[in-house]
Amino acid sequence: xxxxxxxAVAGQLADYFSFDVTAATARCNGCGSIxxxxxxxxxxxxxxxxxxxxSCDQVLATIVEAGDRAWIGFSGVSAIEVRxx
Amino acid sequence: xxxxxxxxxxxSRERDERLPPxxxxxxxxxxxxAGPTPEVDTAEWEFxxxxxxxxxxxxxxxxxxxxxxxxxxxDIHCVTHWSKLGTRWRGVSLDTLFEDVETQYDFVMAxxxxxxxxxxxxxxxxxxxxxxxxxxxGEPLDPEHGGPxxxxxPHLYFWKSAKWVRGLVMQGEDEPGFWEQNGYxxxxxxxxxxxxx
Lengths: 85, 197
Ligand SMILES: [Zn+2]
What we know:
heterodimer; A: mainly beta; four-stranded antiparallel beta sheet; three-stranded antiparallel beta sheet; 7 strands; about 40% strand; globular; B: mainly beta; Sulfite Oxidase, Chain A, domain 2; six-stranded mixed beta sheet; five-stranded mixed beta sheet; 3 helices; binds zinc ion
């Protein structure tokens, strides 16, 4: 099967990447629990922000900001559920 | 009485040569934590070095304290733009810890209590360049600063100096640790401003 390049999903992802994160749920890779981001634990350090699972403490997501650059990592979630408008 | 000020030489305030580019001097010790502070009792503390053969070198607290202990005075540089000059530590050199370790691998992943990891090339840990420190400024290392023991690699940005270190695992490749996976530089030399990808 033929594949398309990344541009093919740009519009689709752009729609979803404007979701309300606090209401979204995510599945933790560590313990499998599915919970709203709002229930996660957030640690802010100078190096970056770390979001940890409320059940098992594992890192769900990271945000690193440096001037005009930012890195958002979702290393600890298998998927995020977003409510469609 | 005579006054000599830098103003007379026509120069602006000189920069301290010990400060890498983009760094500012601080006198306190900011705390950077990506999670809850692990409380590790020295009675349960262990440190290990694991090689590619599965060979494991292990020290408990008493065994560790029986090793040759060095006084370290060094400047430290945090990626968040602060530097602290002439900090004083006591710890065990990685040269001592690696004395009987046989490995062909060139890279190390440091692992911490609490799950943090960071990667460092082996040759940047040897020859008097790195220590496992358990004392800062004459006092046992506070848990919030990484106690009971932390890695100290002062020639790299301070996120490489893993707090609450519990072991080093030899690696064939220079794989990224926790912050290195999430935006920070794989190497982290403050003199080259290797801050981010
Ligand atoms: Zn979890």
